[in-house]
Each structure stands twice: as C-alpha cells, then as structure tokens.
Amino acid sequence: MLAKGLTPILNVSDIRASFDWFAKLGWEKAWDWGDPPTFGAVCSGKYEIFLCKDYQGGRGENGTWMSLWVDDVDAVYAECVANGIEVTMPPTDEPWNVREMHVRHPDGHIFRIGRGVDED
Questions:
Q1: Domains assigned to the chain
Q2: pTM score, two decimals?
C-alpha cells in the first residue's frame, strides 16, 4: 500500500465549539455535515482534521496526541496565549532537536506544535 494522504478524526463533544477553538489556532472550518452538524473538518493549507461528535476515537484523559509542524513555535505560542488557548507546555528546546510546545483542546486532545531546532 502506498498512502496518498492521512486525515486524523477527533472525537469532540461540540463541533461548533471545536470550530471556534481551531479558529483561535489559525485553522479554518472546511465543511460540516448534518443538521445540527455531527461531522465536519478544519483545515490549514492542504492539511485537514475531521471532527466527529461523540463517536469515533477517545477524548478526555485518553484524547489523541498529534504533532503539528510550523515555521515559528514562539509566534504560535504568542497567538495561543493571546487567544486564551490552554498551553500545557511553553516552547522548549527538547533533547531530540525539536523546539516544541503543547496545547490542549477542550476535549483533552493534545497538539505538539514544533519545529526542528536546526531548520533554516
């Protein structure tokens, strides 16, 4: 098998609130399905994350962990703080040569936002 793409699906308790949370992180609502919506997606450039209300995957203490790669971790940190996003770890240079920070979605999903220390 040769994968041509990968789209994570997060279990969320409130799709509309999740759209708002991702907007604070700089992502856009791509689409939603249902009335009221029970499925939808957010996107950043060519990348997309599906959101599924109360069905697929875990959340809370068993939420999903996901790595997002960015150009400037410190700029993202400043945006998160300004927008009231819960930061669980500020930007830190890790021994594995990545500068990263962690933020928590209201349903417990953790996003590791990082950049290689040696990237130009």
A1: 9-116 (3.10.180.10)
A2: 0.85
